Amino acid sequence: MSPRTPGADLPEHPDLLWHDREPKRSYDVVIVGGGGHGLATAHYLAKDHGITNVAVLEKGWLGGGNMARNTTIIRSNYLWDESSAIYEHSLKLWEGLEEDLGYPILFSQRGVLNLAHTLQDVRDSVRRVEANKLNGVDAEWLDPDEVRKVCPIVNTAGDIRYPVLGATYQPRAGIAKHDYVAWGFARRADEAGIDLIQDCEVTGFTTDGDRVTGVRTTRGDIATGSVALCAAGHTSVLTDLLGIPVPVQSHPLQALVSELLEPVHPTVVMSNAVHVYVSQAHKGELVMGAGVDSYNGYGQRGAFSIIERQMAAAVELFPVFARAHLLRTWGGIVDTSPDASPIVGRTPYENVWLNCGWGTGGFKATPGIGSTLAHTIAHGEPHPLVAPFTLERFVTGALVDEHGAAAVAH
Amino acid sequence: MTSTHRTVEGGRIDRTTTLGFTFDGEALTGHPGDTLASALLAAGRHSIATSVKLGRPRGVAGAWAEDPCGLVQIEEPFPEPMLLATTVELYDGLAASGLPGQGRLADVPDSARYDAVHHHVDVLVVGAGPAGLAAALTAARAGARVALVDEQSEAGGSLLSGTDQLDGVPATAWVEAAVQELAGSPEVLHLQRTTAFGSYDDGFVLALERRTDHLGAAAPEHLSRQRVWRLRARSVVVATGAHERPVVFADNDRPGIMLAGAARTFLHRYGVLPGREAVVFTTNDSAYDAALDLSRAGVRVQAVVDARPDGAPHRRAECDDAGIPVLPGSVVTGTRGVERVTHALVAPLAGGEVGASSAVGCDLLLVSGGWNPAVHLYSQARGRLRYDEELGAFLPGDDVDGLAAAGAAAGVTDLAGCLADGQRVGRAALASLQLEPAADDRLPSAPEFRTPAAPMVLWRVPDTSGAEGTTQFVDLQRDATVADIARAVGAGLRSIEHVKRYTTIGTAHDQGKTSGVLTSGITAELLGVPVRATGTTTFRPPYTPVSFAALAGRDRGRLFDPERVTAVHGWHVAQGAVFEDVGQWVRPRYYPQPGEDMNAAVLRECAAVRTSVGILDGSTLGKIDVQGPDAAVLLDRIYTNLMSSLKVGSVRYGVLCGVDGMVIDDGTVLRLAEDRFLALTTTGGAAKVLDWMEEWVQTEWPDLRVHCTSVTEQWVTFPVVGPRSRDVIGAVFPGVDVANEAFPFMTWRDTTLDGVPVRLARISFSGELAYEVHLNAWYAMAVWTRLIEAGRRYGITPYGTETMHVLRAEKGYPIIGQDTDGTVTPHDLGMAWAVSKKKPDFIGKRSFARPANTDPRRKQLVGLLPTDGSTVLPEGSQVVELHPDGVLPPPPVPMLGHVTSSYRSAELGRPFALALVRAGRSRIGETLHVPLDGSLVPVEVTASVLVDPEGARRDG
Amino acid sequence: MQLIACPWCGPREEVEFSYGGQAHVPHPAAPADLNDEEWAHYVFFRANPKGRFAERWNHSAGCRRWFNAVRDTATYRFEAVYRLDDPRPVTP
């Protein structure tokens, strides 16, 4: 046998991931949505708070929504204090997550470069780096020569429409294997006695005054002490059932991969002006996110013109990618909020907790929101790290406006 | 090596020409018409590469895109990773090597050209096999506009792989006639080597044409290598055929194990004998054709192993005549061999139990487990598949809007049926277009189809090897086996999507073309549920891989995004200006003189403007002509200021906010007439502001009689700025009384210069006496030159955006998008004066009253003066409280705001900055700190206006 | 990648259009009379149904006219397009 191709290996999975449970009649906590956030919340409810009479209800297959569709970038170099605090909390949890879950999630801290292509990009980048430093988040500003040292294949030459003027760099940022993360949380939750229930769509709620008493599902009615909504792009479908207006909009967001390639790309590169975010995953495929389709859509697919534009940007910024091949494209549903920050916390129902609007930040927040939402449910009070992200802020105007300032999504 | 396995005659190759190529460094030959795979097989070489995880030898198992493992790396003429040897047309000088798992990218840029074409048709037919040709002919004969695309080098599809006869002559003759007939139809576009890879709504199909790949180094440079066709069809016929499906058994991955239909293709199309001694293992009738054809061509067929208890009785006589033993009720349980299969292990199968096996010697093991219709395009277009129990295949269900499958892609298995189905679907397309079929749209007749024996659905043979499924390969590229599926199911997984992700089946280069349905079947079997309940994973574009460069097309480098330049751009270039991207515009940033760096140039430019006169090309400013009786009403609602009170001949600065009360743009407004304004916007905001105005007019206030038109490109704008600007303007435009009383600040005057209309406006973005010169872009260069010449005696100095920014910052004028970030109100900028208190409402007004907007701790624009008088604060620096000990506390350190603009000032003789600082105006006079490179720079908070706060200069 | 039927131009490629979100959300006649919550709902809150949605589109790279459409956000299919001054059509 010839030696194995570097990077071709993936770790072995455990022999048992989870049991396919039937719903019980009643739980202390029902988590609607069996994606990363729902599963992580379940794990931390059990681990940190000893709450295990919990059901995670998933309308499809566990981890099959955005968790299975994102480009797995993990970073915490957000601009505003509130944002960097929750994402940095999450990143710290990522750093111990393989051990916590006992699962090889392939967390790779290979750093992330956010490129600047205009003088305003540079100002915004320096602003973010300086804010990150003061917030205790690792961050550096790199000039084009330093960018090339971190990622030699970035086109830092002049034959590019928008030259690279520099980049912010967060060395602790990285990627992980998304499915394994979901499965790792699911396995731990299952071990703790939490019921993971698939093919179980919530179709309604039963209420008593300002409390929800249960959920109606395609697999019967389930009584519950409290409810956490972790349905990402489908949040509005649930909140509409409860009559709670929530300012999120669901859009198609596409991503793509190439075939397996020998290692060429050692880090994660993101660029807003030349719209690219790309990493090379463990097996060797280039994983790349495309732009958001402008319209509301739950179809998990988008327009091909966006993929074509994405390829132009990729080849512009990485000329060596020219003859790489697009192998597969797919779409997810990104739930965006007016200020590009999540909405977490109270609803008009005292035992219903909201968690949505993560936009392109959901994956990286997975352990962070899992732990803080579990804390919130357990204490009946928003965890301090999620407290700024209230629904109420849209009334007072105290937004956490990440798109105005950071100008770097994903 | 000689072509040991080439037939003496036959095939669609040009034997008169020999092509040289290398594979893994070995020099080999082939012929035009060969693929890399057929040329390798002709040389007796099956083994292509070793597998990704287990390092097992793997060979060619298919004949086209369905091949699961014959992956190669192209080395010459230009490196390209991971192509199937079966789809690489052979050319002279090709150098390739087997690919064990990961492809390799070139380390030099790809110089090939790529492009894209839009094309609209009535009927798009994908696939030029029998069904596709029938559909295309039917549509073309009726006068429809037709496109026919096919991925192979020539039309014919399955007819190229067999010996079918139509109207009593070889079917390929009909193919040639059909192609000729289509070529003679003016409304038909027929493209070969063109793969439809994506299918979207409303008949939108993307196809990749490989225009020069088959020419190798001989490809003409001027031709695009590949072209993306963006096809929009009112009706789409998916005639993409079917992929043969293997049966899984132990050690089913050895080189020499091949799909039965592929072997037929290699024989008939390429004149290649894929082996000398063959065993054929099948669950259906189609493999009998392969057995008989190979036998006729001289291959010793050791046995047809037919899993069905009764086999195919109606084929028995033919096999007997050919001396081919048929073993009904038998299966292949395993194989022997390393680099090449040497034996098939054959055993009886009865009641699901496998009996004792015997080894049958062979160097070729052909397998057929049935056919999977190529439903990719149908499924991508949201067609819903249905599982057919008899065929063991997922077939297209109902037609989706304007898209229908025909022929083998729809599950039709015989030639006559495919022709008829193609015609039927073609006619249905015509009917939907309200076109009548042509009077004569006859298709040739195929021999009567012998009713086949029903196929048997067999996903895998029970493993008697003792390896417990660990060598029963389902996805050969991923080295994923039945054991892996069993493990996934054992781990609690029920969804086929989970099984895919756990096993990685279907994630490789072929995206599960052969392995996908097998996995559904095997998973269903293991779970004890029907296959239809398991379903398939989702089919996603592209059908086959497409290079990034092809999709990027021409949108690279200077064409990645349009470059907008002004009418005097050439002059700036000639002056050696350094440019800056501002949106799509390319603007001079500064004009260095020999030996100057940016700092020196900008200090010189600033000093020239403040002491004499400078000139700026401000043509990129957005300009919107707002006309109509209600123009003033519109502007009153859009701007925070009162614009209706502006007098004709006057100019007013205005601010625009979003409904959230945050500043989105600013600029001056000239009232040209009672019913006409010229609204100037920022360079980057021009399109956005026009969109904004149009949106409100159309969607909210359709009663307003007003029209908005962009005139950004039509008018150039040249600010002439500085104490001597009046002299320059007076000299160039003698028809204008430039005296301050006659032409005061914030007014405009029309004049002419040699018959060219010119508008002059007393607008200042620098705080200096200044005139903006507006005129038709056609005359820009002439007037610019006049201004430069007239200014020469004053040392008129062209200046760029950097100097413009310094001058305006010294005056505290914000740049929207630099000093604001979407979270800043006019009040935050100290511009309460620009917010009308008279108007009952304007966009954003209500938001000013929200609690967060009345918070006294909001960030406000202020000036900062580094107290050392020398530090230039980096823009973006954060501002923190004064830490008297000079030491930052540990993080998180509370931040008060950030530096938005920062420059050296010639006027002030020291650096200065603008910053957004919490409660900034109440801190004027305080000292704060800015962290910089590990130290703390003390800064004094000042008002935002640092130069000429009384405004004496600009007014004078 | 749909064809969108502009009410003025006829069917045109999706890339020629830009999206304007929920339709039939008029600017309040007297914003000053609204409380903070009511105003916030106008500024930030839009429906986000899965299924039929009455929404605004602009043929921005064509005639630049705004119009309304009823579209299914699950299938993306346009069920009706109509002018801004037309009432929302009743779709089957």
Question: Which secondary structure elements does this structure contain, and how are they paired or packed?
Answer:
The complex is a heterotrimer of chains A (410), B (956) and C (92).
Chain A (H helix, E strand, L loop, with lengths): L25 E7 L3 H14 L4 E4 L15 E2 L6 H15 L1 H5 L10 E5 L2 H16 L5 E3 L1 H7 L15 E5 L3 E2 L2 H14 L3 E3 L4 E7 L2 E7 L2 E10 L5 H8 L6 E12 L7 E4 L4 E5 L4 E8 L11 H14 L7 E12 L6 E4 L5 E5 L9 H14 L13 H4 L5 H4 L5
Chain B lengths: L18 E5 L2 E5 L5 H7 L4 E4 L6 E3 L11 E6 L3 E5 L9 E5 L15 E13 L3 H12 L4 E4 L15 E2 L2 E2 H13 L4 E4 L2 E7 L3 E7 L15 E13 L3 E3 L12 E3 H11 L6 E6 L3 H11 L3 E7 L9 H7 L3 E3 L1 E8 L3 E10 L2 E2 L3 E4 L2 E5 L2 E3 L2 H5 L4 E4 L4 E4 L6 E3 L9 H18 L40 E3 L4 E2 H9 L5 H8 L11 H13 L3 H4 L11 E2 H5 L16 H6 L3 E5 L2 E6 L7 H14 L2 E3 L5 E6 L3 H8 L12 E7 L5 E11 L2 E6 L4 H14 L7 E4 L4 E7 L3 H8 L15 E6 L2 E6 L8 E7 L3 H12 L5 E3 L1 H10 L48 E8 L11 E2 L17 E9 L4 E9 L8 E6 L2 E8 L9 H4 L1
Parallel strand pairs in B: 1-7, 8-9, 8-15, 9-12, 15-29, 17-25, 18-19, 18-25, 19-20, 35-45
Antiparallel strand pairs in B: 1-2, 3-4, 5-6, 5-7, 10-11, 13-14, 14-15, 16-26, 21-22, 22-23, 22-24, 27-28, 30-31, 33-34, 35-41, 36-39, 36-40, 37-38, 38-39, 41-44, 42-43, 43-44, 46-49, 46-51, 47-48, 48-49, 50-51
Chain C lengths: L2 E4 L3 E4 L4 E5 L13 H9 L7 E7 L7 E7 L5 E5 L10
Antiparallel strand pairs in C: 1-2, 3-4, 4-5, 5-6
Tell me about this structure.
The complex is a heterotrimer of chains A (410), B (956) and C (92). With 410 residues, chain A is an alpha/beta fold. Helix content of chain A is 28%, strand content 26%. In chain A, β17 and β18 (352-356) form a beta hairpin. Mean pLDDT of chain A is 94; it is low at 1-7 and 405-410. In chain B, α15 (598-611) packs across α20 and α18 (725-732) crosses α19 (780-791). Chains in contact: A-B, A-C, B-C. The interface between A and B is large, with 90 and 96 residues. β16 of chain A pairs antiparallel with β32 (546-547) of chain B.
